Amino acid sequence: MKKETAIKAFIFLVKLKALRKGNPLHVASAYGHVDFVKEIINVRPDLAHEVNQDGFSPMHIASSIGHTGVVRELLKVEQKLCHQQGPEKNTPLHCAAIKGKVHVLSEMLSACPECIEDVTIQHDTALHLAIKNNQFEAITVLVNWIRGMKREEIFNMKDEQGNTVLHLATRKKQRKELLLGHGTYSSGRLELIALHQQRQLDSRHDFVEYFKFKKGRDSPGETRSALLVVAALVATTSFQFGVNPPGGNAVAFALFMFFNSLGFKLSIYMIIILTTKFPLQLGLQLCFLAMYFTYDTAVIATTPVGIRIFIIVTEAIIPALIPLTARW
């Protein structure tokens, strides 16, 4: 018996060295070694919370592969491990739903029913993911759990494209699996719901919501580039209007110059912030400074004498107010 245990331990260490990712509990979870999982947890229960180089915890790995026994042992450490977020906020329940591991789904929902409400960074629930990955048995299990917990509002939760699970199921022709669990909608009723939701997706509100910036989904680099383009366009346009102002009475001219200067100096401020720590920083700052004073000189030179003092004061006050906008 001791010889057999030693051989198993040797094989386990070889696998650990070959994997080179995560701690021993990750490896034991990946290979479904329940006995090793128990021993490791007894000595180091904190390892259950650690993530590997890819951002996955032992619970994520065991759930994705379908090692129900390992999942059961990990849940004994802490039931909140069901909520642990990995890449793109995927939880162990999400991993099990994607792979269709129905026994793991039941095990986790028995221990932590509220984890069925967790969503990914794309706002997908476990049921969304099961439908998108054509995991029919998982769909039935999840729907039955939702119905049993009387949490039918989960059926109305939307992903980032505005799709509910009913809409996805109808589009992917998975009505049967939902109907078996839900027991509420007829096929015709489901068609009407899906049609109504599709019309909602085409509405202006959903169109605007789709293109809104979403932290975590949109790349910071691409966002910076877009802001730089917009700021440069505003700076160029307002500079041209500032050095070549339109005619008009004194009041209209003063208002025009105030708002045009506000737009120009805000755009320059944005560009300075967005190019912080760029190479050739000294050259960039000198360029901004030269453009700034060129604009002010041109504005003052083209301003009628009667309102010149007002414009000079305005041009001096605006730069002091601009940093306050960074708080909004």
From TrEMBL:
SMART domains: ANK
InterPro entries (UniProt xref): Ankyrin_rpt, Ankyrin_rpt-contain_sf, PGG_dom
PROSITE patterns: ANK_REP_REGION (PS50297), ANK_REPEAT (PS50088)
Residues that span the membrane, as ranges: 225-243, 249-271, 278-295, 307-326
ANK repeat feature ranges: 54-76
Domain PGG: 222-278
Pfam families: Ank_2 (PF12796), PGG (PF13962)
Keywords: ANK repeat, Membrane, Transmembrane, Transmembrane helix
Name of the featured protein: PGG domain-containing protein
